[in-house]
Amino acid sequence: MGQPGYLLLEDGRQFGGDLIGAAGMALGEVVFNTSMTGYQEVLTDPSYAGQIVTMTYPLIGNYGVNAEDEESRRPQVAGFVVRELPPVYSNWRAETSLESYLERNGVTGLSGVDTRALTRHIRSAGAMRAGIAPATVPADELLARIHAHPRMEGLDLTCGVATAEPYEVAPVGPERFHVLSYDFGIKSTSLRLLAERGCRVTNVSGALAPEQLAERDPDGLFLSNGPGDPEAVGQALESIRHLASRGVPIFGICLGHQLLARAFGGRTYKLLYGHRGGNHPVLRREDGAVEITAQNHGFAVRGGEGDRVEGAPALRVTHVNLNDGTVEGLAHRELPVFSVQYHPEAAPGPHDSRYLFDRFVDAMRARRGES
Amino acid sequence: MPRRDDLRTILLLGSGPIVIGQACEFDYSGTQAVRALREEGYRVVLVNSNPATIMTDPELADRTYIEPITAEWVERIIERERPDALLPTMGGQTALNVALELYDAGILDKYGVELIGANARAIRMAEDREQFAAAMKRIGLNVPTGGFARSVEDALAIVETTGYPAIIRPSFTLGGSGGGIAYNLEEFKAQVRKGLDLSPIHEVLIDRSVIGWKEFELEVMRDGADNVVIVCSIENLDPMGVHTGDSITVAPAQTLSDVEYQRMRDAAIAIIREIGVEAGGCNVQFAVNPANGEMLVVEMNPRVSRSSALASKATGFPIARIGAKLAVGYRLNELPNDITKTTPASFEPVLDYVVVKFPRFAFEKFPTADPTLGVQMKAVGEVMAIGRTFKQAWQKGLRGLEIDRAGWQIGARPQDDGLPDDSIEALREALRRPTAERPFQLKRALEAGFTISELYELTAIDPWFLGQLAELVEAERTYQRLPHVGREELRRMKRLGFSDRMLAALRGETEREVRERRWALGVRPTYQMVDTCAGEFPAATPYLYSSYEEESEAPPSDRRKVVILGSGPNRIGQGIEFDYCCVQAALALREDGFETIMVNSNPETVSTDFDISDKLYFEPLTLEDVLEIVDRERPVGVIVQLGGQTPLKLAGPLAELGVPILGTTVDAIDRAEDRDRFAAVCRQIGATVPPNGIARSVEEAVAVAEEIGYPILVRPSYVLGGRAMEIVYDQLSLRDYFERAARVSPDHPVLIDRFLEDAFEADVDAVADGERAVIAGIMQHIEDAGVHSGDSACVLPPYLLKDHEVEEMRRLTHRFAAELGVVGLINVQYAVKDGVVYVLEVNPRASRTVPFVSKATGVPFARVAARVMAGRTLAELGVTAEPPVSGVAVKEAVFPFNKFDVDVILGPEMRSTGEVMGFDDSFGMSFAKAEISAGAPLPTEGTVCITVNDLDKPTVVPISRRFDDLGFRILATAGTARYLRARGIPAETVYKVGEGRPNIVDLLINGEIQLLINTPLGKKSQFDDYAMRRGAIAYKVPYCTTMSAASAASDAVIALRSRRRAVKSLQERFGVPDARAASPLAAV
Questions:
Q1: Is A290 on the interface with B (CB under 8 A)?
Q2: Is A195 within a domain?
Q3: A3-22, pLDDT tens digit by residue?
Q4: Among this protein's residues, is A238 annotated catalytic?
Q5: Do residues B602 and B528 make contact, with C-beta atoms less than 8 angstroms apart?
Q6: CATH topology of domain B9-125
Q7: Measured between CB atoms, does A349 come within 8 Å of chain B?
Q8: pLDDT digits (tens, 9 = 90+) for B5-49
Q9: Last residue of some domain: A119, A148, A177?
């Protein structure tokens, strides 16, 4: 067993455990993820920047860690909380243990925690700021640090995880389309799925100006997922409107979806504890089909009557979360512009929604047919 | 797409008797399906031959037919009931096979019956391995390569390419019956021959051996709009090569990364679509190569299964219930998640706990059977445990198995763990071979310093699991060495799942000392909910398991509560009958306004369905686990008399700790069980018992036997299902018995009774309220005395007992009930010899026959008993007179002899796994139906082969004459033939085995014998007899091994020849109107 430590929530609730990973302290917003597999993808998902992630599945680390399942270059979470980290891992692809991976990558975590009690607490009290520290750190000291830490609301965290310099991803096979990808914290699986569909992807920071965008003359614009409060991200809205007005197909995911909504007048709000996991049922309104989706978001777009989006008459709601009725997908009423709140790239998660990448490609093809 | 309005009546097929590979999981599923369909307003017609099921409770379906589940008999039901649809996916392989047969014969077409849930094409594609392999190829998935053979020559050609070890699986058999692994040519040929014979279509599959690969299962559901969800993933701890039913399995999968899991999920979804299960569920099994992740599809079952029952209990997602609703048109998102009530069923459950299932075996009943686990299932039951971690669930599961281990605890002697001695070599050798004892061998190995990689080499069990086990061994060592056990140390061990009893053993303490210290230190379990969503949403249904976490959920209410203790894993002697009783009690007391709390650990059962009781604790039935629940819930009382021996054994210890026991007192139970006290009771009321004695040493036993006279019935005290009970005819055999079967010591006395040869036996069930007793039923055994009551066929009302004998039984039963102060159920076993009624046993608790009696009379005696225990009187309940039986009800036992290579002669040790009921207006027809349901239909013409011992020769004459009169050809072995011919019966002589060819076995193989009547001929010719009886089993020729069975068989044959074959529902027999029957107003 490691050194004793604890997790302290900003409301004073405390959970004991043993420190794992890198020595030190961790501060961030504590959230829970209900996926039973895919901890490595969760750790490296840039959307988790600034968050202490609790896995509700109690045994984390069973199959070790490998180089193939990284969603970005390094773990992005602020901290990691598990019920148990088994000392022996086993899988033919495993290269190292989760424990040493966390340590090597500077992630501080806590194991032995009653993660169910923690989850139930977050479920009723909401996602909130928290800190992990060794037992030797007095609670009042940790609490002071937690209170000094910024809240998630109003926080633009994209600059910390998005690419600083533009780079290109080559298509698999011959190039069919050129996609400009706005990187707010993109996951490698999204890039791979685009590349596999014949897209050359130029991945750029969301701070790129609209005219610079247009110069690149993309066949389509992809708006990636990312961390933080969508209300705090102002940069891309202008570009989205600009390209949309020119009839360029746009596909947004998660934060990208929220920004798309905002670009057309929609509003976002913070959910009590968000959706994080791989089992959320989403109704596709066009045909009534249900997709089991991977989700990771703490904010959502405000819906309206019927298929309307509050403040954004040009948009309609295409997908709805069957658990709580929140907006899960949007489309422009006229333009080839659409987005989903969930993660169709699904890494981790079920592959039910990968057809959306095909739709994006279809839209680009249709546009080319017209021009 | 909501509920279909074009259907009105739906026919549902059950799975028949409990057999190995098809147990009460289908009662659980079928019961859910019936309830789900009725709540939608459909008229449900149910067929099941198994009277011990909840589903055949006449209150459940609109029309309940306890009739044979064969195409012939189901057609009669279809003809009468004219269902619009048949739901074939709830009754296991039996229901699927019969549905297909009805479809192929054009009967479904003829009556316009639609198959719902899965259509004929899908069923066939999934079942027929050739079609299945082709389907998998179409969607780019691989199956273990190989091919189908219809002859040994075909098979040899296939094995040329696949190589050894090769797997041989006969097509269309239950639970992989007849399958095997062959390591060389000779074994291969033998296995193929056996498989071809067993397969109803004479086909075997030769598979590429994937022995040692990892094994996974996914439970999949699809609705009519093509929405698909995965309900649960399961990983087998035992690698490929051990049947899933015999494997320790874990949910969810532990060693797959998300990439690999999603690949499997994608495959499962593609499979359910390609096979074309339109609206329902299926189970898909995968094998994964541990070296490189190569994934093969092993099989797919387009129906509910053992695994789907486990998955339902493991996740809280009621697969059968949802499956039934999907079959009538609903979409997944139109149905609520029954646990949260607020979210829809179109989701995939997530667990925040670990579930471990252990199989329960019965090799002690079949000492000559091969205990190696392989592709043919051998387990008779299972236990499931839920823990926050694997280690917790592992320990809980092992203590829930009720095999005298307080958790993962090695036996006192190497022999207890399947080892010849305590050498490293023996251990290493044993570990290579999967057996029931392997978990304990693993522990011995870890204690002896084996490394994880060594153990992986020997067992192919994934290193992750071995690593978990190594942690437990390490924790024990640390705990043993502690100078002092404080709160933290104790809590750590409890979090690892150690029971108080195990902790006590580790430090030389008593369980009580550990418990008292633990309570003083405030280390108490917490109770967590199984909520389908890992805590993401509040759950409305209190389905709980214990752990040692920070907080408990589902706080106790202040209602009046009753705790019902279930019966744990099924085993021979304690199965579904007791679950039936517990469920009835829960339903009755719930109706009466009590909060009902069920405690059980068996995932197959109806009792562990979360909506049967108000609160469900999925926990092992040990003193510690039950005591914690009782201490938390503070019920008005605990019901211990309905779940068989498991709860009964807890009654004393619980009562001692001040727990109120409802109904008959613990002291009364003891008076019936304790030899001396029982003798006093009998003296008191003037009941005659066979001469008997008790012995605490071999010499004492010999002396007692001399005194009371041979033959004797000898058995260890306090046993279940006649364990190690034998009839002994002389001193030599008695000494041999102690060598072979049972220990005797001052602590382990044996009971010796005079065995009443040629006596008739009867079982009497009654219910009493402390004032009054009412006889529920008097069942006469068809087999002679000496056959365990659970193995003997029986008939209600008694057909050969004299009135005054029956009257005496009634009188004595009332006296026993009064003397013991029975409040609840009582069962008394009697024997009648030379006009004297002897009392053999008194059990002041629910007996195995309670459901049978309830089905025969229409009176739900277990419900009545529960209400009486809760304070009602029989008069209040209107149960004041012995109910009449409308017709003749015959119960027949079903044996696992096709799974175990053992002799089929019945004896005092119970070996049957299940039972069927034949219900008609005459004894002959009822017996005939029972035999059909038991899978041994009697012939109406052909040849009867008779070979009986000298004692039975006079008795067999009139039976033979009847068969002769009926036009049967009579064959007999030399002695019997001479005897019969001398009495005017034209018996032809046939060779015994070893006398020449063709002999009886040859004729059995050639299909030239339709019925075999054989009684044991004594020691000398035992081998011949054995070969002959095994031949009958192997070639499915019905056989009788007692004269009374042969006589009953002749009655049945006469009935089959002369009477109209008719079916009648229970409701018609009991005069219950059909509320939803077609009427002009109801018709649309």
A1: yes
A2: yes
A3: 999 999 999 999 999 999 99
A4: no
A5: no
A6: Rossmann fold (3.40.50)
A7: yes
A8: 999 999 999 999 999 999 999 999 999 999 999 999 999 999 999
A9: A148
| Mode of pairing for the β-strands spanning B381-387 and B969-972 | unpaired
Mean pLDDT along residues A173-178: 96
Residue B175 is predicted with a pLDDT of 59
Closest of B172, B194, B171 to residue B181, by C-alpha = B194
Query: Between these two residues, A303 and B175, which has the higher pLDDT value?
Result: A303
Q: Across all residues in chain B, what is the average pLDDT?
A: 94
Judged by a CB distance cut-off of 8 A, whether residue A139 touches chain B is no
pLDDT band for position B895 (cuts 50, 70, 90): very high
Higher pLDDT, A124 or A370: A124
Interchain contact, A83 vs B389, CB within 8 Å: yes
Pick B471's closest partner by Cβ from A34, A87, A281: A87
Q: pLDDT for B163-195, tens place per residue?
A: 788 889 888 776 567 788 888 899 999 999 999
Residue A254 among the catalytic residues: yes
Query: Measured between CB atoms, does A306 come within 8 Å of chain B?
Result: no
Active site residue A257: no
Asked whether B941 and B1010 are in contact (CB, 8 A), the reply is: yes
Taking the C-alpha atoms of residue A61 and residue A71, their distance in angstroms, rounded to an integer, is 17
Element (H or E) spanning A139, and its range? helix A139-148
In A, minimum Cα distance to B387 occurs at A58
* Final residue belonging to a domain, choices A148, A168, A196: A148
Q: Which domain holds residue A58?
A: 4-148
As given in the structure block, the two tokens for residue A90 are 């086993």
Question: Quick check: B317 contacting A, CB < 8 Å?
Answer: no
Q: Topology of B406-525 in CATH?
A: Carbamoyl Phosphate Synthetase; Chain A, domain 4 (1.10.1030)
Residue A91 has its nearest CB partner, among B255, B352, B471, at B255
Nearest residue, CB atoms, A83 vs list B230, B388, B538: B388
Which token pair is B556?
């106790």
A272 touches B: beta carbon within 8 Å:
no
Contact criterion met (CB < 8 Å) for B353 and A277: no
Tokens of B975: 């002695």
Write down the pLDDT at residue A370. 54
Q: Which pLDDT belongs to residue B367?
A: 85
Helices (H) then strands (E): counts for chain A? 10, 17
The first and second tokens of residue A292, run together, are 């089991």
* Partner-chain contact A117 B550, CB within 8 Å: yes
The predicted structure's pLDDT at residue A209: 75
- Identical fold at B145-209 and B691-749? yes
Distance from CA of A365 to the nearest CA of B (A): 27
A243: left (phi over 0), alpha (psi -120 to 50) or beta: alpha
Nearest CA to B643 out of B402, B855, B436, B407 is that of B402
Check A29, A99, A291, A345 and give the catalytic one.
A345
CATH number of B559-662: 3.40.50.20
The whole-number pLDDT of residue B1028 equals 86
Chain A residues with CB under 8 Å of B550 CB are 15, 114, 117
| Number of folded domains that form chain A | 2
